[in-house]
Amino acid sequence: MEKVQTSRSFTVPIGPQHPALKEPEHFLITVDGEIVTKAVVRLGYAHRGVEKATESRNWVQNIYILERICGICSHIHATAYCLGVEKLAGVEVPPRAQAIRVLVAEMERIHSHLLWLGVAAHEAGFDTLFMYSWRDRETIMDLLESLSGNRVNYSVNLLGGVKFDVDDELARLIYDGIDFLEKRTQHYLDVVTSDAMFLQRTRGIGTMTRSQADVLGTVGPTARASNVYRDIRVEAPYGAYGDFPVKIVLDERGDLEARFVVRIKELFESYRVIREILDNLPAGELSTRMPRRIQEGETVSRVEAPRGELFYFIKSNGTDTPERIKVRTPTICNMMSVVKLAVGHQLADVPMIVVGIDPCFSCNDRMTVVDRGQGQRQGWTWEALRRYGIRHYQRLAR
Amino acid sequence: MKPTKNRHPDRLAGLKTWARINSPWVLHFNSGSCNGCDIEILATLTPRYDLERFGIKLQGSPRHADVLLCTGAVTRQARSRLLRIYSQMHEPKFVVAIGSCALSGGVFQGCYNVLGGIEKVIPVDAYVPGCPPRPEAIIDGVVKLLSSLKAPQGGDGTAAHASEMVEKLVVEHEHR
Hints:
The structure holds 2 protein chains of 2 kinds.
Chain A (H helix, E strand, L loop, with lengths): L8 E6 L11 E7 L2 E8 L7 H5 L4 H9 L6 H16 L5 H29 L3 H22 L8 E2 L2 E2 L5 H27 L1 H7 L7 H6 L4 H5 L7 H4 L20 H24 L17 E9 L2 E9 L5 E7 L1 H13 L7 H7 L25 H16 L1
Antiparallel strand pairs in A: 1-2, 2-3, 4-5, 6-7, 7-8
Chain B lengths: L8 H14 L2 E6 L5 H10 L11 E2 L8 E5 L4 H13 L5 E5 L1 H5 L21 E3 L6 H13 L9 H19 L1
Parallel strand pairs in B: 1-2, 1-3, 3-4, 4-5
């Protein structure tokens, strides 16, 4: 790729699009030599107008469209929505349904974290880990499929309950799958904390202090890796988390390694919660009756998605369609930290810093648009940047 | 330089088709999808499904790609990108629309920012329905497309042999 350089610093537009769900982004990174001096992010390429669309669909139809905001955390979107609508309608959901919701949410967290581990390892050039973690992820995909019949958009939630039950046979399958994954996860924890080449890409990179994480409003594992006590499952337990409490996983270091460690340790916590739910699954109904029209009012629903706090605002005007639904996804909260943290780092570290927040564009490098602007702009594809980062560290290792 | 005369046009076409069928490079583009189809495309590359045993390679540049795997209802911002990528690909090029949204807009039909379906923007050669389609379905879609690419002359041993090979691999895969 030819390089255009007219002054000491030049701007590198990356993207402009990474295949993604709600937040595909375009990064404009200004570098002085190797060092990033400024980073700008542009969001909104996959904006489909989901929030507006919810206003023309009824309460039940909306479960399905909101579930498809994100293919990775689909269940948690539907859960947030259903919890909010049930709160508005004043409906009490049976405990068994709440427990199954949490069970599926934790299974989804496992699939999402393993997916992220693979993608992040791929960005660092560690494709072996990518392949292994995705192979093991198929275990949890199989379990989700045997539970719900679909691998990705499970559609477990109903307004007022859940659709699918967990019987003894399925429970046994889940126990076995979890046992296998726990062993593998221990191995991954050893790898990301001991592999010298990998640590070179993660240790001390993209360090975010606790106060920075607080000020930037980061959420989820990104915040917890900077020792910020922020987890909706712990702070404001919803669903069955009151009966099956989760221990918060924190790390003090705030660098990329800490983000790997926090996410992997959260997997152990998920395994423990899943076992606990299966051991003590409350008996009873799966769903309860819901009115077709939801009484007037507005509410806020907060849940902990795999990437952090997911926030729903729901307003009803007493009809069978919502008046307004507002969604705030965790990636948008964490995106600012990327823009801040990239400054002062080498260009080679940018892919890892971006991936470190687990942005919901987990399939980021699967396409390329080379954007050649005028003057001192130079177009880089995500793939080129990733390779650049890997080569840079290979040179250092020599 | 004097252009070399092509003495065996049929043979050459057969050879090209043979090469194309045995090693198609695919490009993945998300034109406003929810990520569901995209993670399933990625899953086809990983050890359980292992798309590469068919010689199919996922790579980054439209200029090197034979097949475009397209997911998602096309959003207004993504439209120009999709057209640009399609025009950057060399002939002959093929498009596979993956997932309900790519086929018709799916649940996002009627959203103000959604055009609805890849075929509204670029011609599509194969459709893989599902929300999202299973990795097996994606592999099947791509392989069916490849099987249909027999040499235009027909009866060319090489190309026919190649598509037979592909079909055989699919059968093997199904029996696994």
